[in-house]
């Protein structure tokens, strides 16, 4: 019987077998971030609404239609975070994280919220990990951030990645591109979708990103941003290309790549995977040299990315099998159960351990141990308990050896994965 309540539309429960896949991904993310020198930041799930309106941009889909915005009991407008960069940069400014540092490298992992039409790869609560490198305009940092993203994906075991790179210019040269888009589309306005008609007025760059076929057709005729780059942006773009090539990171230039958020300058990138169909971006990011100042900090360049964890896990497919139970403790009768439970409690310091108690005979208990995937069984009969030497049975070789409890614990610890480490 299924109950009256279901998880809200666009959200999903992560059940135990899937949660193992999530833990594995999170472990890889944390490990790679650590090796690249990024430190974790955890910001609140909700922020003042104006933070997102200001940074993500008033004309973006996120701010116009996708935010979970509510008023609290004191009449403040708050919004469940739709993305992680604005909160990270807000915290960077608020806590003066850049003081004395050449570069501040942050990463985050957590849920994001967007009121979108749920479909494959698109949810209302979803999860991202992301990284932000704040404090340097050096193109080598762009290279480092893109390489970091690629490395995380590689370590998950995903093959067949495609890295797309573009430059959207900066405050110097972007107005020329915007003017050219307006000019190219002025006589085709009626053929654009209603959203793009409005974009043509307010944010023409985003027409390049529209998925409506008619708009895509028109967008193909627009000269790309790279035709308008100023010398400084052109040099930056070339340096990023050269840096990626030097590391052996394979990428392709995609002149139509603009990102859905207003704060990007210069480098924009996305990583795609063919298995995902229409929603094929695993994640993306770019440089946001104006954002820190926009949020009230001293002018400070930055670059970052965000990756969609549901999409990565979809590509990875099957959750990893449950790690084999390592030890089954088998008291032969009720009289041995107390000793068995004490030993179980000690064994759980070093390994996953279960007890098979009850009236069944040894044969049946050993079968139960086998079914739970135990590598060892520890058998406690009357004699073993009296002598303080239970029998350790190696379930792979069948060998049985009487041992003291400390010996048993040491033997089990030697083959068990360390208890705090995630087994993959
Ligand atoms: P964005 O912050 O829009 O650049 O998104 C970065 C990545 O997050 C995307 O490439 C997706 O992998 C993922 N993502 C964005 N929105 C959603 C969503 N509604 N549901 C699931 N994943 C999403």
Tell me the number of helical segments per DSSP (H or I, 4 or more residues long). 15
Stated plainly, the CATH topology of the largest domain is called BirA Bifunctional Protein, domain 2
Estimate the helix proportion, in percent: 25-40%
Which spans of ≥5 residues are poorly predicted at pLDDT below 50?
A: 420-424
- Identify the CATH homologous superfamily of the largest domain: Bira Bifunctional Protein, Domain 2
Assign the structural class, choosing from mainly alpha, mainly beta, alpha/beta, alpha+beta, or little secondary structure. alpha+beta
Largest sheet: 8 strands, mixed
What would your notes on this structure say?
This protein is an alpha+beta fold and 424 residues long. It has 2 domains: 16-173 and 229-316, 2-Layer Sandwich (BirA Bifunctional Protein, domain 2); 326-415, Rossmann fold. It has helices at residues 16-35, 49-55, 61-66, 85-94, 139-156, 174-185, 194-202, 213-219, 231-247, 291-294, 309-316, 337-347, 362-371, 382-387, 405-415, and strands at 39-40, 46-48, 69-71, 77-80, 104-113, 125-134, 161-167, 252-253, 265-273, 281-287, 302-308, 327-331, 353-355, 376-380, 391-394, 400-402. The strands form 3 sheets. The protein has an 8-stranded mixed β-sheet with strand order 1-5-6-11-10-9-7-8, sandwiched between helices. A 5-stranded mixed β-sheet has the order 13-12-14-15-16, sandwiched between helices. Strand 15 and strand 16 (400-402) form a beta hairpin. Helix 1 runs antiparallel to helix 5 and helix 5 (139-156) runs parallel beside helix 9 (231-247). The radius of gyration is 28 Å and the shape is elongated. The structure holds adenosine monophosphate. Adenosine monophosphate binds at residues 83, 114, 116, 121-123, 126, 128, 260, 281-284, 306-308, 310-311. The site of adenosine monophosphate has 18 residues, from strand 6, strand 10, strand 11 and helix 11.
